[in-house]
Design brief:
The protein has about 130 residues and is mainly alpha-helical. Helix content is about 65%, strand content about 0%.
Amino acid sequence: MDNHFPMSIIDRLFIAVNVELVDMADNADRALCRFEFYEIIVRIAQAKFVDSGHFKSIAKATEHLIENYILRFRYEKMEGQDWRERELWTIEIDAFFQVNMKNINKVSFYVNNSNLVDVNTKQSCAQEIDIA
C-alpha cells in the first residue's frame, strides 16, 4: 500500500477473492483459505504492477511482489520445540491449566458450538467463567 495503491484496492480484491458461489461452511466470511490467499497475491501483483504498466506478465509481477514485498520481511524460523519446552510445558503453566480446566472446557464448548448456543446462553456462560 502506498499513494498509488490504496487500501481500497486491497479491500476490493479481498471481496472478489472471498466471494463464495458455493457455500463453504469452513470458510469464514472475513478470512481467506489457502487457495484464496494465493489468488489474492496474484491479484495484488496484477493490480499493482501489470495494470500500472510496470510489468506485462502477471507471472513476473507476482514473482516481483513475492521477492520484494513479502520475502524481504521474513525472519528466521523460530525454534518452536525449544520454546515449547522452555516456556509452555512448565509446571506453572500446567498448574494454571489444571486449576482452570473446567472453565477452559466451557469456553471451548461455546466457541466450537456457537451455532448451537443462543446469545443469552453465551452471556450467562461468560458470567460463569472464573479464571484463577
